[in-house]
Amino acid sequence: MAYEATGWSFNWESDLSKMNANAYDPVSKPNGHLVSNHSYGLVVGWYRNSSGNWTWAGNTSISTSKDYRFGFYGAKSKGLDDLAVSKPYYTIVWAAGNDRNDTGDGTRDPDGPEDTIGPEGVAKNVITVGAVSANDEYSGPQSVFMSDFSSWGPTDDGRIKPDLVGVGVNVFSSAISNGGTTDSYASLSGTSMAAPNATGSLLLLQQLYSDRNSGRFMRSSTLKALAINTTREAGSAAGPDYVYGWGLLNTHAAAEIILNENGNSDIIREEVLTNGGEFEYEFLSDGVTPIRLTVAWIDPSGNPVSPSLNPANLMLINDLDVRVIDEQGNTFFPWSLNPQSGPNGPAVRDRDNFRDNVEQIQIDAPKAQRYRLKITHKGSLQGGQQAFSLVFKAGVADGASETLYWIGQSGSEWNDPKNWSFVPNGVSAGKIPSNQTRVVFESSTGQNQTVLFNEDATVFSVNLFGNQMVNFDLNQNTLQVESGFRVSNQITQITNGTIRFVNASSNQQLVELGEAIFDDVKLDFEDGSWKILSAGILGDVAVSNATLDFDFAHVRLRSLSVNNGGEVSGVFTKLTFFEGFSLTANSMFKPSIQLAFEGEQGTYSNQIPDLNLALTVLSGVLDWENGDLNRLDIDGARVNASQISKRTG
Predict the structure, then answer these.
(1) Which of 441, 475, 500 is the last residue of a domain?
(2) Which of 67, 229, 237, 629 has its CB 3.0 to 4.6 Å from that of 45, i.e. a possible disulfide?
(3) 306 has pLDDT over 50
(4) Residues 334 and 247 in one domain
């Protein structure tokens, strides 16, 4: 699928060690593997030996009729899940196996049809792929034909496996000939063909996501949720089953969500649920488009039991629950399966799913009303928290009603209708953006673009992609943004004005600024809940009657002002300012932060009582207006203050 990618091939011995050594990590292994394909597995159950005779690989001390390893969560399953936890951006794809019709010689039960997936494919955090026949034109579930060999679930504890299916019958494949001495190609069938089909597709989705998100990649749970949320229906009943899993991989639909991600109708989110916490998202359905959302998480490894035949012990550790509630209080539950109903048994959606670390809600005929998505958990979360991924697609009435693409020449004005089109590089739409407009800058020509503002402007969201350089000259005007702001192009420079962030909903809005350069720009967060995913050096940041999360470790900005009920929090541990730092008494700021001043002339003011902060003054002169500290260090600089109080602790 990804024929221009660079691939590495290993033999299968000590695979966990090799996978761990080569897996991608954004810090320790930035050139590591994002996805890996595993078209192999231990011999389980019946197989034909070198003489073509049926041989049984089971353990008669545990069962004389069936190989207990089918569907069993064992040491290898646990090892794969541990690896996935330690390498959260690394996606492991495993072939489901070809054991469904291994009938044997009649002395013991045949392997299939159901419960024929080996220990590797049973792992919770891998993507297990079954094989179907190709059909160029999908017209419904009847278009997807199950192969006569692909292994089926369930797992012993009733989880949904395979996760999905891909084309694996008569696939043009690499092969060997002349007794293994010559490289060749052949038409082959097997889940060993379906799995790399899916692996290459998933890698391309990671590449597309990185192109649109400042070089970031998805967690493996996010990629899994994206793939599952966009599968095509397969099987005899709606929803998942133990035959096709969640359905046929649909890479095009998954890519469309990445391309159209807007924070409202098309959403890809990575969040963290803490013990006792909950995540909520509200949306207003258009009453027409079906609602489909998937939540997935990299679950801690399960606790294998002693080898036995079909133990039903649940392997789910952190049990997250997803529900959608409408205005009348009606609750929509995720799909779930009962292993007692057989491999083709219908999925239900009238109860919690307590088995799987993937949950999906589908509302086929929504009403034009407000819905509330709620994610909670049962019991206590191992580790005190659980990162999860949410992929959401619906028709919403409170999102952007249109998308406009910039087609103007460099030096053209934002408020000129001829500079905007409904399609990339299209004809003029004859209108300018409004608060209902998703604005997109996307050019593959690499040309520089300067956009002039001759008056204030308001948009729903701003999105900059491609390899062109864009300069917004605000000319002392204000650009008001009511949803997201995303920078993922080569260079963006914003000068001379204000970007005001205003949102009246309870949902957190995302801002990704990449390495955007700010020159004399105020970033004014006036209303709503906002999260900055990435940024270089920010301009003057003001937070008033809003909450702002920084989702990266070190925040650098010209100045920060938090007042009028504003709140600043997030994962950051250090904040460097170059001019001013001001907190009023009615604001909130994350405690125990290491502050640093690196400017020529600056001011410091902290009116929040009992706030634990440490400050290092590294250069210039800092005027101390008020506030206390846990620690103050001065290195080659000066602090002007009438009084500085140092707190203990």
Answers:
(1) 500
(2) 67
(3) yes
(4) yes
Residue 555: name the closest of 575, 569, 538 by CA.
Answer: 575
210 shares a domain with 70: yes
Q: What is the span of the domain harbouring residue 569?
A: 537-643
Q: Region 121-128: what's the mean pLDDT?
A: 99
Q: What is the DSSP code string of 43-99?
A: --SEEE-TTS-EEE---TTT-SSS-TTTT---HHHHHHHHHHHHSTT-EEEEE--S-
The CA distances from residue 122 to 155, 203, 447, 622, in Å, are 6, 22, 50, 60
The predicted pLDDT at position 7 comes to 85
Q: Among positive and negative, which fits the CA dihedral 265, 223, 486, 568?
A: positive
Q: Indicate if 229 and 361 belong to the same structural domain.
A: yes
Beta-bridged to residue 402, according to DSSP, are 437
Model confidence band, residue 648 (pLDDT cutoffs 50, 70, 90): very low
The average pLDDT across 579-601 equals: 96
Entry pTM: 0.92
Residues 546 and 493 reside in one and the same domain = no
Q: 446 — phi, psi (to 5°)?
A: 80, 5
Closest by CA position to 404, among listed 412, 414, 395: 414
Residues 390 and 405 in one domain: no
User: Using 50, 70 and 90 to split pLDDT, how confident is the model at 467?
Assistant: confident
Mean pLDDT of 156-163: 99
Residue 644 reports pLDDT greater than 70: no
In this structure, the answer to whether residues 412 and 479 fall within a common structural domain is yes
Number of domains in the chain: 3
Q: Is residue 528 part of a domain?
A: no
Residue 646, pLDDT > 70, answer no
Question: Over 10-43, what HEC string results?
Answer: CCCCCHHHHHHHHECECCCECCCECEEEECCCCC
* 160 & 269 share domain: yes
Residue 136 DSSP symbol = S
> Is 624 part of a structural domain of the chain?
yes
User: Helix, strand or coil for residue 288?
Assistant: coil
Of residues 447 and 527, more confidently modeled: 527
Check whether 647 has a pLDDT greater than 70: no
Across the chain, mean pLDDT equals 95
How far is it, in rounded angstroms, from Cα 515 to Cα 536?
Answer: 5
Those residues whose C-beta lies under 8 Å from the C-beta of residue 143, and which sit 6 or more positions away, are: 135, 137
Residue 210 has phi, psi (to 5 degrees) of: -60, -40
Task: Give the closest residue to 397 by CA, choosing from 509, 264, 528.
Answer: 264
Domain assignment of residue 350, yes or no: yes
Same domain (yes/no): 387, 418: no
Domain boundary residue, one of 500, 520, 554: 500
pLDDT digits (tens, 9 = 90+) for 609-618: 889 899 999 9
Task: Convert the pLDDT of each residue in 314-334 to its tens digit.
Answer: 999 999 999 999 999 999 999
Give the number of residues written for the chain: 649
CB burial of residue 466 (10 Å; 0-12, 13-18, 19+):
buried
Residue (of 239, 188, 475) closest to 360 by Cα position: 239
**Can you give the CATH number for the domain in which 183 is found?**
3.40.50
Q: Which tens digits make up the pLDDT trace of 391-447?
A: 999 999 888 889 999 999 999 999 999 999 999 999 999 999 999 999 999 876 667
Maximum CA extent, the chain = 94
Environment class of residue 387 by beta-carbon count within 10 Å: exposed (0-12), middle (13-18) or buried (19+)?
middle
- Nearest Cα neighbor of 228 from 139, 168, 164 is 164
What pLDDT is recorded for position 379?
97
Tell me if residue 227 falls in helix, strand or coil. Answer: helix
